[in-house]
Amino acid sequence: MRYSSIREAAFIRRLNRFVAEVELDGRIERVHVKNTGRCAELLVPGYRVYLAGSGNPARKTAYDLIGVDKPVPGGTRYINMTPWPRTGRRGNGWPRAGWDPWRT
After folding, report:
1. 3-state SS string for the chain
2. pLDDT band at 42 (very low <50, low <70, confident <90, very high)
3. Which of 19, 27, 28, 98 has its CA 20 to 30 A from that of 9?
4. Cα(16)–Cα(70) distance, rounded to whole angstroms?
5. Is pLDDT at 98 greater than 70 in this prediction?
6. Per-residue pLDDT for 6 more than 80?
């Protein structure tokens, strides 16, 4: 999947499995969470998150939460929040080495 317009925001809180609140350009925005798992170690208030515009004016949320920067010793690490695509090979479906989520 290719994302054309990626925006940075600050995570505020998760309302339920599918919706979270973020601070985007000084205002609170509700966004769709693609990964409906618990993600308690990733979705922490104040963490930088990445949003992709939905492009569908009929949707309740204008953005999808697609990634988060998790602080680690020595810097931050980008965590992809979208479900992994199938690679078309046998096995567990994890992406091949060198796979880039922004160019799929």
Report:
1. CCCCCEEEEEEEEECCCCEEEEEECCEEEEEEECCCCCCCCCCCCCCEEEEEECCCCCCCCCEEEEEEEEEECCEEEEEECCCCCCCCCCCCCCCCCCCCCCCC
2. confident
3. 98
4. 21
5. no
6. yes
Statement: the pTM of the whole predicted model exceeds 0.70: yes
Half-sphere exposure in the Cβ direction for 1 (13 Å, CA) = 15
**Cβ pair 50, 24 in contact under 8 A:** no
Reference 8, options 29, 36, 37; nearest CA is 29
Phi, psi of 48 (to 5 degrees): -80, 130
pLDDT above 90 (res 21): yes
Residue 56 tokens read as 């569908």
Per DSSP bridges, beta strands 6-14 and 27-33 are unpaired
Judged against a pLDDT cut of 80, whether residue 80 lies above it is answered with no
